[in-house]
Amino acid sequence: MPKYIALLRGINVGGYKKIMMTDLKILFQKLGFSEVASYIQSGNIIFICNEMNILKLEHQIEQAIEKAFGFQVPVIVLTQSKLQKIVSENPFKAFNEDDTSKIYYVFLKDVPQKAAVELFNKTKYENERFFIQGDYIYLKCLAGMGKAKLTTNIFEKRLGIEATARNHKTTLKLLELADN
Fold first, then answer.
1. More exposed terminus of the chain, fewer Cβ within 10 Å: N or C?
2. Options 3.30.70.1280, 3.90.226.10, 3.50.50.60, 3.40.50.880; which CATH number does 3-82 get?
3. DSSP E strand boundaries for the chain
4. pTM higher than 0.85, yes or no?
Protein backbone atom coordinates (compact mmCIF):
# COMPACT_ATOMS: atom_id res chain seq x y z
CA MET A 1 0.00 0.00 0.00
CA PRO A 2 1.22 3.51 -0.74
CA LYS A 3 2.65 5.78 1.92
CA TYR A 4 1.32 9.34 2.03
CA ILE A 5 2.17 12.62 3.70
CA ALA A 6 -0.73 14.92 4.55
CA LEU A 7 0.11 18.60 5.04
CA LEU A 8 -2.52 20.64 6.85
CA ARG A 9 -2.71 24.39 6.26
CA GLY A 10 -2.91 26.84 9.12
CA ILE A 11 -3.51 24.73 12.22
CA ASN A 12 -2.08 25.57 15.64
CA VAL A 13 -0.92 29.00 14.50
CA GLY A 14 -1.42 31.87 16.92
CA GLY A 15 -3.95 29.94 18.97
CA TYR A 16 -6.31 29.38 16.04
CA LYS A 17 -7.59 26.10 14.66
CA LYS A 18 -6.04 24.12 17.47
CA ILE A 19 -5.74 20.38 16.96
CA MET A 20 -3.66 18.14 19.18
CA MET A 21 -1.55 15.78 17.10
CA THR A 22 -2.71 12.83 19.20
CA ASP A 23 -6.32 13.68 18.28
CA LEU A 24 -5.37 14.05 14.63
CA LYS A 25 -3.63 10.66 14.65
CA ILE A 26 -6.73 9.06 16.18
CA LEU A 27 -8.89 10.69 13.48
CA PHE A 28 -6.65 9.29 10.74
CA GLN A 29 -6.82 5.84 12.32
CA LYS A 30 -10.63 6.07 12.45
CA LEU A 31 -10.54 6.79 8.72
CA GLY A 32 -8.92 3.37 8.30
CA PHE A 33 -5.38 4.58 7.70
CA SER A 34 -2.50 2.60 9.18
CA GLU A 35 1.00 3.35 10.45
CA VAL A 36 -0.12 6.89 11.27
CA ALA A 37 2.64 9.18 12.55
CA SER A 38 2.77 12.92 13.11
CA TYR A 39 5.61 15.38 13.09
CA ILE A 40 5.54 18.67 15.03
CA GLN A 41 2.37 20.60 15.77
CA SER A 42 1.91 22.24 12.38
CA GLY A 43 -0.07 19.40 10.83
CA ASN A 44 2.21 16.86 9.19
CA ILE A 45 0.84 13.33 9.11
CA ILE A 46 2.43 10.26 7.53
CA PHE A 47 0.11 7.32 6.86
CA ILE A 48 -0.57 4.29 4.74
CA CYS A 49 -3.82 3.44 2.98
CA ASN A 50 -4.94 1.63 -0.13
CA GLU A 51 -6.77 4.60 -1.67
CA MET A 52 -4.95 5.74 -4.80
CA ASN A 53 -7.02 8.86 -5.59
CA ILE A 54 -5.24 11.84 -3.97
CA LEU A 55 -8.18 14.22 -4.45
CA LYS A 56 -10.52 11.76 -2.78
CA LEU A 57 -8.09 11.39 0.14
CA GLU A 58 -7.78 15.16 0.57
CA HIS A 59 -11.55 15.59 0.51
CA GLN A 60 -12.10 12.71 2.95
CA ILE A 61 -9.57 14.14 5.43
CA GLU A 62 -10.90 17.70 5.12
CA GLN A 63 -14.48 16.53 5.77
CA ALA A 64 -13.41 14.42 8.76
CA ILE A 65 -11.49 17.34 10.29
CA GLU A 66 -14.42 19.71 9.86
CA LYS A 67 -16.81 17.20 11.41
CA ALA A 68 -14.50 16.36 14.32
CA PHE A 69 -13.10 19.82 15.12
CA GLY A 70 -15.70 22.23 13.71
CA PHE A 71 -13.57 24.17 11.24
CA GLN A 72 -12.25 23.83 7.73
CA VAL A 73 -8.60 23.03 7.08
CA PRO A 74 -7.09 22.75 3.60
CA VAL A 75 -5.21 19.45 3.25
CA ILE A 76 -2.60 18.61 0.64
CA VAL A 77 -1.66 14.94 0.29
CA LEU A 78 1.55 13.82 -1.40
CA THR A 79 2.91 10.37 -2.05
CA GLN A 80 6.25 9.60 -0.47
CA SER A 81 7.76 9.19 -3.93
CA LYS A 82 6.48 12.58 -5.13
CA LEU A 83 7.87 14.34 -2.06
CA GLN A 84 11.21 12.59 -2.61
CA LYS A 85 11.24 13.76 -6.24
CA ILE A 86 10.44 17.34 -5.23
CA VAL A 87 13.30 17.42 -2.72
CA SER A 88 15.81 15.73 -5.00
CA GLU A 89 15.12 18.19 -7.84
CA ASN A 90 15.35 21.31 -5.68
CA PRO A 91 17.37 23.90 -7.63
CA PHE A 92 18.49 25.58 -4.41
CA LYS A 93 21.46 23.68 -3.06
CA ALA A 94 22.25 24.12 0.61
CA PHE A 95 25.94 24.66 1.22
CA ASN A 96 25.70 24.91 5.00
CA GLU A 97 23.20 24.75 7.85
CA ASP A 98 22.38 28.45 7.46
CA ASP A 99 21.39 27.86 3.83
CA THR A 100 18.94 25.09 4.75
CA SER A 101 17.04 27.49 7.01
CA LYS A 102 16.34 29.67 3.96
CA ILE A 103 14.92 26.96 1.69
CA TYR A 104 11.16 26.28 1.59
CA TYR A 105 8.72 24.19 -0.36
CA VAL A 106 5.28 25.62 -1.11
CA PHE A 107 2.79 22.88 -1.92
CA LEU A 108 -0.23 23.85 -4.01
CA LYS A 109 -3.64 22.20 -3.94
CA ASP A 110 -3.67 22.11 -7.75
CA VAL A 111 -1.68 23.27 -10.76
CA PRO A 112 -2.26 27.02 -11.24
CA GLN A 113 -3.42 28.46 -14.53
CA LYS A 114 -0.62 29.17 -16.99
CA ALA A 115 -1.50 32.89 -17.23
CA ALA A 116 -1.32 33.27 -13.43
CA VAL A 117 2.09 31.58 -13.36
CA GLU A 118 3.42 33.73 -16.20
CA LEU A 119 2.26 36.91 -14.48
CA PHE A 120 3.63 35.81 -11.11
CA ASN A 121 6.99 34.87 -12.66
CA LYS A 122 7.42 38.55 -13.55
CA THR A 123 7.35 39.34 -9.82
CA LYS A 124 10.70 40.22 -8.31
CA TYR A 125 11.37 40.47 -4.60
CA GLU A 126 14.72 41.49 -3.21
CA ASN A 127 16.39 38.56 -1.38
CA GLU A 128 13.78 36.06 -2.54
CA ARG A 129 13.91 33.52 -5.35
CA PHE A 130 11.25 31.07 -6.47
CA PHE A 131 10.53 28.48 -9.14
CA ILE A 132 6.97 27.35 -9.79
CA GLN A 133 6.92 23.69 -10.89
CA GLY A 134 3.38 22.50 -11.51
CA ASP A 135 1.71 22.07 -8.14
CA TYR A 136 4.68 23.05 -5.98
CA ILE A 137 7.11 25.92 -5.63
CA TYR A 138 10.74 26.08 -4.60
CA LEU A 139 11.37 29.15 -2.49
CA LYS A 140 14.57 30.60 -1.07
CA CYS A 141 14.42 33.54 1.31
CA LEU A 142 17.94 34.93 1.53
CA ALA A 143 17.06 37.22 4.45
CA GLY A 144 15.01 34.51 6.20
CA MET A 145 11.29 33.74 6.18
CA GLY A 146 10.56 36.27 8.92
CA LYS A 147 11.45 39.10 6.53
CA ALA A 148 10.03 37.49 3.39
CA LYS A 149 7.44 39.19 1.23
CA LEU A 150 6.62 35.96 -0.60
CA THR A 151 4.37 34.30 1.96
CA THR A 152 1.97 31.44 1.49
CA ASN A 153 -0.88 33.97 1.49
CA ILE A 154 0.72 35.85 -1.42
CA PHE A 155 1.14 32.65 -3.44
CA GLU A 156 -2.48 31.70 -2.74
CA LYS A 157 -3.84 35.11 -3.67
CA ARG A 158 -1.78 35.61 -6.83
CA LEU A 159 -2.09 32.03 -8.13
CA GLY A 160 -5.67 31.45 -6.98
CA ILE A 161 -4.81 28.11 -5.33
CA GLU A 162 -4.70 26.98 -1.70
CA ALA A 163 -1.16 26.35 -0.52
CA THR A 164 0.92 25.37 2.47
CA ALA A 165 4.65 25.68 3.02
CA ARG A 166 7.27 23.65 4.85
CA ASN A 167 10.91 24.46 5.43
CA HIS A 168 13.68 22.24 4.11
CA LYS A 169 14.48 20.71 7.49
CA THR A 170 10.86 19.72 8.14
CA THR A 171 10.49 18.31 4.63
CA LEU A 172 13.61 16.18 5.04
CA LYS A 173 12.33 14.93 8.40
CA LEU A 174 8.99 13.95 6.82
CA LEU A 175 10.85 11.90 4.23
CA GLU A 176 12.95 10.28 6.94
CA LEU A 177 9.84 9.36 8.93
CA ALA A 178 8.14 8.03 5.80
CA ASP A 179 11.13 5.75 5.18
CA ASN A 180 10.67 4.03 8.55
1. C
2. 3.30.70.1280
3. 3-8, 34-39, 44-48, 75-79, 103-108, 128-133, 136-141, 163-167
4. yes
